[in-house]
Design the sequence.
């Protein structure tokens, strides 16, 4: 009986040690996932591209709010080779639509990456996500 108790105690000690190692590993992974420096190092291109895109979109949005044509502004009536105004409403609208489409694409990619990241990091996330989407649709 003494030998059986020793085996059980040894098994419990081994399991505790393994559990401790697993918890340490999970803690390190969570720290890496939430550390902005680590994320930036791994995804430098995405972070910089997103910052540039956000700055560009912000500049366009602020520019639209401040864009009130003044007749006395020099260069406001410049025309392109076809004779169309260079800053006419059609071109500005087309440019705004292009920027909006690019922004929508970036948001879609970022949403997909975020969903994938969370799905891989959190067990059971996909089921809860699907349940919430079904509840919203209903």
Sequence:
């Amino acid at each position: 009986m003494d030998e059986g108790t020793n085996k059980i105690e040894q098994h419990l000690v081994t399991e505790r040690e393994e559990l401790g190692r697993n918890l340490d590993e999970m803690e390190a992974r969570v720290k890496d996932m939430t550390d902005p420096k680590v994320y930036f190092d791994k995804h430098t291109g995405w972070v910089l591209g997103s910052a540039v895109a956000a700055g560009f979109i912000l500049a366009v949005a602020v520019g639209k709010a401040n864009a009130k044509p003044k007749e006395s502004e020099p260069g406001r009536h410049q025309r392109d080779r076809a004779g169309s105004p260079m800053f006419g409403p059609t071109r500005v609208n087309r440019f705004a639509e292009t920027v909006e489409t690019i922004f929508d694409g970036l948001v879609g990619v970022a949403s997909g990456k975020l969903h994938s990241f969370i799905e891989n990091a959190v067990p059971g996330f996909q089921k809860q996500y699907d349940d919430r989407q079904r509840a919203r649709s209903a």
